[in-house]
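Input.
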Amino acid sequence: MTGNVKKIILKILIFLIFLSITVAILFSSFFKKVSIDVIGLPSSIIVSVLDNVKDFSTYIKDKKSLEDENKNLKKQIELLKLENQKLSYLKTENEELRKLLEFKNFYGFKRVLVAKVVGFSPDNWVDGFFIDLGKNEGIKEGDIVVSKGYLIGTVNLVGDRYSQVMSVNDKNFKITVRTRKTGEICFYNGLDYKKGVLRYVRPEQDIRLSDVVETTVVNSTISEGIPVGIVRKISTKEGEFFRDVEVETFYYPYNLNYVLVVQR
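Output.
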C-alpha cells in the first residue's frame, strides 16, 4: 500500500515538474520569438503571394491599356497621314485653279467655266476626254478647252450634265493657226499622241523650228494667241509642192485634272 502511494506521489511530482517546465517554456522570451517566427512565416508567405498576384494583375491591366493606347495612336497617325495627303491634294488643286484663273484674266475671256475631267475616250486617251459640264451649264459644241494656258481641244459632243472633248491630237481636229515669230497662217490638223501637222504649207512660207503655233481669229471663232504646239520638224517630200511640218502639241492626258472651257 505504501509502495503504491509512493508511486502515485512520484507521478504527481513528475507531472508537476513537467507542467512547471512547460509553463516556463511557454512564457520564456525564446519561445515567444520562435512562436512569432513560426506564426509569422506563413503569414509572410501569404502576404507575398497576394502582393505578387496583385502586381501581376496590375501588369496585365497596364499591358492591355498600353496595347489599346498603341492601337489608338496608330489609328490617329494613319488619320493624320490621310489628312496630310488631303491637304497636299487641295494645295495642288488650288494652285491649278489659280493658274486657270490667271490664264482667264490674261486673255480677258468673258465667259469661262472650270470643268473637272471625269473620264477618257475608251478607244484612245489621245483622242479625247469627258468633263463634268453640259447643256445645263450652257456648254456648246465648238467651245474651246484649255489647260495650263494651252489649247488642248474643243467640245464636240454635249449632254445635259457631261460633255466630250476632242483633243488637238485627234485626226479629226482641224483649226486655222498662226506661227508666233513670223505670223504665217497655216492649217493645223491633229495626228497622234502629242503630235499634229501643218497642212498646205507653201515653200515660200517662213516656218521655223521651235516656233510656237497658236490660235488665230482668221477663219475661226477661237480667241487669238492661245498656244497649240511647237514646230519640231520641217521637210519636203520629192514631187510634192507643200512642205510637211510636224508640231509637238501641249496636250498631255495623263495628268489632267481641271480644265477651262471658253464659251463662244
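Residues 8 and 14 are 10 Å apart (CA to CA).
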